[in-house]
Every structure is written in structure tokens, then in C-alpha cells.
Model the fold of this input.
Amino acid sequence: MTDTRKASALQIALALGAVYVLWGSTYLAIAVAIRTIPALLMAGARYLTAGALLYGWARWRGAGRPLAIHWRSAVVVGGLLLLGGNGGLVWAEQRVPTGTAALLVSTVPLWMVLLDWLRPGGNRPAWKVVAGLALGCAGLILLLRPTAGTHLDPLSVVIVLLGAFSWAWGSLRSRTAVLPASPLLATAMEMLGGGALLILAGLVTGEGAHLHLAQVSAGSLLAFGYLITGGALIGFTAYIWLLRVASPVVVGTYAYINPIVAVFLGWLILGEPLTGRTLAAAAVIIAGVVLITLSRRAPAPAAETKDLGMEENDTADAVPALRRAV
Done:
């Protein structure tokens, strides 16, 4: 439920700016962190730490003790979001530029629309959404089309796109999953469940043999700390607050601002190539996401919603925080 009386325009702008910059910069932070820390183990440790802190905060603020069925749902949703979605991203960032990865991840709204459309009794998208899907596909073709002097690892591209699909599936699954009423507590549990699965996946794939604590650089440690604090905790807190005081359409603009920030930072700090084709593909993909975002249904009336403007078990609006805190 939106309550703009509790926040000034300046406060909303500052919170939006934090979400734009913090979540957009996490792609860069991942690239730095995984230079000397195995990718899946890094992601797992990050989410276990952030989840434990958020869990303690939610319980201290009065959230009830979760039931076993809540934990089961959180592990399933967290696995789809973090093991499938974020795990695929961090693994692929060892081989693809951060800006390209961010643009591939920005296809999540496209996957969500397709999944919601194709499910039994699904919602047929409006023409603007169909146009957005078409633009998104065209942008991907432009981004991934082989040209002289450029090469993207095909497997890494597929892994990121499958991760985006997994994230979209997990987001839709969270709408009907039996989760705690508190979005903070539900997200913390998903972080803990997904983080544990990421650690397990890292160990199974042999990353433990490549983890040498004495060789972890100061830059990787700083990036790891930033991913926990700036990406997962501060960014998430700002996002949850915005859900309470601002229009969902305004809050949803992060979906097409974050890739721009990621592409710019990758070029500025990591020296990643910024070609005309990349810029054109970014413009086309983001235009598609804008069309889809602006075509979302209006929020339910206040009398039919819970404290944060969501149904008791509908954490779909809060869940994207996990992804943008990549």
C-alpha cells in the first residue's frame, strides 16, 4: 500500500538513487570478488551472511518463528532464485563482461511474462507487453550476433539466460509458496536456503580445492563486504521502504536503470569494451523492459492488501531485491 505522506520527494529520490547505484554496481563487485574467491562459494557465503543478519533483524522486529513448511518453501524458492539465478550469473561472470551479463539478466521480466502466459490458465499479455517481448528478443539477437573482433562464450551466455529463467520461475513460484507474512523474514529465509545450496554446489563442483584464504586479495574481500552490505542489506532495505511509500511503477524502474549502471561501470573501471552495438542492444532491450514494466496492472485497493501492499504470501515485489543484489 502506497503512503506518500510518510516520505518526501527528496527521500524517495535518494532511496531510488541508492537502489540504482548499489544494485547496478553489484555486477562490478562480483567480477572483483571472484578474482580470488571461487564464484559459487563466494555467492553462498555472501547470502548466508546477509540472510543471517536479515533473519536476526526481522525476528528482533517482531516477526514470528517460521514453521517447517515455511522453510521448505524458502529453500525451493531460494534455490531457484539464488542457486539457479545468481549462481549462474556469478559463474558466467568469470567468462563474460559484466555489462553483457547485466543486459542478459535484464531479460527477467520477459521470461516472467512468457511463463505467466504459458502456464495453464495464464494471463494473455497486452499488446504493449508483446511489443516489449519482441524488442527484448531483438535486442538479444543484436547483442549476441557474432561479429569480427568480438566473441562471447556461448556456454556462459546460455548459463546466464537459464539463470534469468530460473529467477523468473522462482519469482512466480514465490507468489503461491507458503512463506511467512513478513517479507523481510521470508527473504532472509530464501537467502539462507539459497546460500546453503550455493555452498553445496561449490563444494560438489570442486571449488573447495581452489579456495586459498591466504591468496584472497584485499580487493576481493572489499568487494565481498560490499556485496553483503551495499547490495544485499542497504539496497534491500531501501527497496522495501520504497515499496511502502512510492508507486510500484516508479520502484520498478530499477529493472532498466541497473543494466545501464553496470555497463557504464564495467567500461569505466574494468575497461570493458563499449561498442556501438552494445549500446544499441542495451537501448532495445531496456525499451522492451520499459514497455513491460509500464504495462503492469495497477496495485490492488488498500482494503484488499496487507501491510506492505502485498498478499500475505505474495513476496514477489520483495523478491527481486535478491536478484538486484547480485
